[in-house]
Write a sequence for this structure.
């Protein structure tokens, strides 16, 4: 247990130091979400207008943009595994007394802390584009962002466990990013799409993360565009987090198994 906890602490601390030293990552991780915000938020807002009384289109997509920011950083958490493998540093970690589960969870934890910092910055910027946000909202979102980030980071680590080049990893991640984003209800209510798209969206873990964040922003039960319906049940925040957590636990278990097999 001691090596497990130490592994989480040492590796997550190293990930935070790397992020601080590579300031370009801070700005690059915001690039795509901000582009989508401008294109869909500013571009479509006038055309779509008010989705329902009191809810503008930009208010609807902003929680999804925050989830997208978390997704971008979390999926790339696996890149450090590939980088360490390429340059031989991974072997040094593997021969240390650190628990392998702790190493992977430390990678995910470091990524989650970075994602929270980035998500908080997006929340601070929200009032500048007309999206109201309070301190209570920010505090409520921090644990949600952490759970979503850990789960998505587990997917990145699972992919990285079998990759031996940074280029190969980035290609696979780029193939995953767009389907995860566009089938997560970032830009439209999931329950309003064609049936086949709805089925695919509801096996996407990011869908439930987006919905949980959106419910904190807009309030559950105040509008029909809030809440993903699964088997006739409309998901609440706690339901969404349980689903995201279950996905994360499964993906992390697979990542640890795959990592042990490959190393």
């Amino acid at each position: 247990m001691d090596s497990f906890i130490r592994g989480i602490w040492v590796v997550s601390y190293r990930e935070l130091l790397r992020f601080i030293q590579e300031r370009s990552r801070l700005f690059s991780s915001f690039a795509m979400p901000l582009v989508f915000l401008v294109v869909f938020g500013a571009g479509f807002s006038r055309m779509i207008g008010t989705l329902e009384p009191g809810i503008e289109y930009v208010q609807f997509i902003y929680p999804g943009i925050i989830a997208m920011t978390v997704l971008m950083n979390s999926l790339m958490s696996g890149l450090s595994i590939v980088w360490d493998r390429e340059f031989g540093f991974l072997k040094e970690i593997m021969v240390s007394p650190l628990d392998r589960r702790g190493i992977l969870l430390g990678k995910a934890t470091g990524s989650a802390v970075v994602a929270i910092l980035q998500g908080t910055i997006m929340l601070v910027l929200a009032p500048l584009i007309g999206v109201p946000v309070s301190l209570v909202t920010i505090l409520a979102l921090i644990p949600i962002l952490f759970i979503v980030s850990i789960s998505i980071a587990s997917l990145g680590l699972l992919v990285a466990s079998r990759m031996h080049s940074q280029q190969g990893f980035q290609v696979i991640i780029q193939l995953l990013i767009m389907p995860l984003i566009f089938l997560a209800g970032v830009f439209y209510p999931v329950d309003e799409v064609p049936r086949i798209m709805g089925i695919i969206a509801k096996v996407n873990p990011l869908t439930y993360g987006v919905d949980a964040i959106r419910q904190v922003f807009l309030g559950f039960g105040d509008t029909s565009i809030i809440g993903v319906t699964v088997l006739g049940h409309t998901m609440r925040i706690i339901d969404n987090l349980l689903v995201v957590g279950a996905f994360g636990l499964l993906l992390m278990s697979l990542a640890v198994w795959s990592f042990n097999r490959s190393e």
Observations:
- The chain has a mean pLDDT of 77.
- The radius of gyration is 19 Å.
